[in-house]
Please model this.
Amino acid sequence: MKLLNPGPVTMSARVKRALSFDDECHREPEFAALVGDVRRRLADVYAAEGWEAVLLGGSGTAAVEAMLALVAPNEAALVVANGVYGERIAAMLRAQQKPHEVLAAPWTEPIDVASVDRALATGAFGHAVVVHHETTTGRLNDLAAIGAVCTRHGVPLLVDAVSSFGAEALDLASWGCEAVAATANKCLHGAPGVAFVLAREEALDRPSGATSVTLDLRRHAIAQRAGGAAFTLPTHVVRALREALAELDEHGGWRRRREAYRARAARVRRVVRELGVELLLAREGDYASSLTSWRLPARRAYVDVHARLKRDGFVIYRGQGALDGEIFRIAVMGDLDDADMDRLAASLRAALG
Ligand SMILES: *Cc1c(COP(=O)(O)O)cnc(C)c1O
Model:
């Protein structure tokens, strides 16, 4: 099966092989060396000097929630949301009982940077939190512009980069970021089960604002700095992530991966456009390199389109929230080759033509 949902993705044979590596104890030196290697490789993806990756067992949501430990209990955070994942961040802050305000944009609209500017000008906020690639629609939010506003107001930015890390530009230093959260099994092409936060070292040195023991980012950071692990890490999944990061590096890093995604997505968009199906967002340029969303044609049920593609070996993705039943999404992450893309084009013509 070829997965065209935005994670977990189709893994390469090399990454899959790493999953059957010998059994290891997470408290032995060889596993500590592996964790050190993976943490360095994660920081190296964007050549982040003075940044540190902290691994967490769990899905991307766990990493986002752990990142919010950088928000102190008594400060207020500004959440900028234009989709399901932005709203999930607000739900986490609510669960952590931390003061926050949500600056919401309609899901199909870009974030209004001027309103972020006005909100931060009040001086009320200690952090801003935003999703980079809002997977709900496929929009790549303009982190450079949002980050510039945050920098001007001296408000550090926390980023959910779960579906962009490894395949989009992330200028961590000049975009005013303090931390980004991401996962092994989206643009990095690893296996599901391990996620991470990449943060400025000094942010990890502050007293923890965690409201949970398992997701206490600082506790994990301290343990991993000392060559240990706070709790059991998914050992095989960490091995697989090392292979996936080595592959990314050998294939030319995030820029080359973005190029590959862009070429695949351009092809899929051309095929679907020729079938007369409309994009959800106004312009192709609004989308991240890895994902596209289209409005379902009239009298076409999502389940039928999904079933037709699945018969041909492809899993596509439904809409979430208010967009469920209205759209379908195709991600081009993972280990896909030209022959897969040829078969996908034929399958899409059969499903939508
Ligand atoms: C996939 C995703 C997540 C996390 O999803 P999990 O199912 O927890 O891995 C968070 N944010 C964004 C933007 C995502 O695309």
Observations:
- The pocket of pyridoxal-5'-phosphate is lined by residues 6-7, 59-61, 64, 85, 131, 133, 135, 160, 162-163, 183 (CB under 6 Å).
- The radius of gyration is 20 Å.
- The mean pLDDT is 97.
- The longest strand covers residues 51-57.
